[in-house]
Amino acid sequence: MKLSPLLALAALGIVSLPAMLAQAPKDGPSAKSPAPKSAPAPKKSVVRPTIPAADRHDPGKVFLEKADRLMFDQARDSDVQVLVGNVMFRKGDMFMYCDSARFNEATSSLDAFNNVHMEQGDTLFVYGDELYYSGADELAELRAYPGKKVRLINRDVSLTTDVFFYDLAEHVGYYETGGTLTDKQNILKSLQGYYYPDSKDAFFYLNVDLTGPRPNDTLRMFTDSLTYNTGTNIAQLMCETLIVSKDGEITSTSGFYDTNAGLADLYDRSTVHTRRGNYLTGDTLFYDRNKGYGEAFGNMILTDSAKQSELRGDYGFYDELKDSAFITGNALALEYSQADTLYLHGDTICAYMLTDSTKVTDVFHRVRFFRNDCQGLCDSISVVERDSILYMYYNPILWYGDKQIVGNVIYAHFNDSTVDWARLPESGVLGQHIGEDCYDQLAGSDMTAWFNDSTIRRLYVEGNVQVIMFPMENDSTYNKFVFTESSTMDAYFNGNEIEKINMWPETTGKATPLYLAKRSAYYLPMFRWYAPLRPMAPAEVFDYPAEMADLKAQKLMGKIRPDAYTVRGTATGRPRPLEPEHTAAPASLPADSLSPASSLQLPDSLGISVPVTLPDSIEIPEPVALPDSIEIPEPADQPEPSAPVDPAPEAPETPDVPEAPSAPTPDAPGTTDIYRKEVIS
To answer: In this predicted structure, what is the pLDDT of residue 412?
Structure first.
């Protein structure tokens, strides 16, 4: 069926009605929109800065923070930006400033000019005239114009040089053409140097010179390699170094030196030269410059150049201000002012100053010494500079040539390191080896000998004088010995040989043919020959024969005065004897020898004139046949004396040692004849 045209139009109207109603204006269906007068104007474009999204703390990137002008010539420099005016760059925490720069953003490299400086925080600043930074190496090179210096400032530390390199990756600055580092304590100069601001460590090489700028200080340090910390002011020695100050010099190849406190810890064989002129050397050395003392460990040597002497040991302590020393462990004293050298050994050597500025040197226990012209031993020795006397305590023994001196104590006076007199005030025995088992012997209560160039020239003995002599016959044989007693004896020598003997007031004696005498009669009761104990070479002073310990068990000389171990000599004191000017003249003697008479003339070959009172007659018995040899029984076993253990003296904090130290008294009540067989066999 076909729709009529009218119906079709109605349907179209119904469909179109909502759209037409929607387009009708609010004012009414009759309102119309006004037509525009002209086309709208286009909007103006605005360019705003864009902040890069990259991390500004990227350790490998340099950022341009600001500049007054930026120029870019792609034809000439395709990757370089030219920046002028108040230029600032940033790399991590480091900021770099300049007046102008050429910047390659792709490689993070730049060249900066005029008023160049770098800042890191508020502590590190570097100033220069030109800066060249390589982004690939993270290395900045700063240069200064002629007449100016590149400067690094890190709090109290200043470093100046002509060309300065700063490694931003390692945080270290260095120079290679000479520079100077200054802190509150010192000034250090060198041809090459490295400085780490974070740790405050500095390393200097080639012609290193450290100077202490403090008032009234003269500290200087010269070396080729040195490590120094600006925070602690401690220098580490890395090669041969000389440290000079008003207090002396230090030479070392390894160690540490605190320039602030004046303390030195030194290794690898170091030496301190004190202001007194002494040298202290050791494998390891500690030295306090301000307090003036040093300690040496291992092969220690203390040298006194003025007195030409040395002290050696495994350990040594030296106080320069008090001029005192303490040495132990293979302790050895050497004196070489003369042509010959004296070697003196003991367990401990202590040198100190008395209140009157007198220098005293004590050697304790197992003392042995050697010089070509004189050797000896004892338990303790004390040398007092005031009176130039050497005191030997506890069983002292002296040898010179073929002679031996033994006493309770021995005093020896030195004049220019040469003995000019010696005294045995507490009994003594002098012996001289004649031949085989024959010994000339002399004993007395107080003996004094005077010397010329270490050669005895006079011997004066007082009290209980006993003499045994073996006079040589004309045919150079010995067939008798003479025993003589008196109260006083005065003997004169020529070239260590007896020239004349005077004895008074009363003299008794006896001559005995050898074939009538027992071997035991050859010797005085107090005489022993101690040849096995004698040191025969410098190295033997360190030996300690077992027999030396047995000396403590022998009291051959009898009791001594209580003050014998503490007395000190003076110009008028008891230890310094006055040489007698005159002696009693001997009585005239008859010429016949060994004939019954009231006196006896000894052979002229000895040149001895001795008045000897004898009995009215001397009976000489017929010769008695003797066996070819005499067996002497071994001495009974004696218990080994227990020597007291003396505590080793400790190194005092201050070497104030008592004025008159005394060695320990040996604890040995008995007397042993351990040497009798060796003497009489």
So the answer is: 87
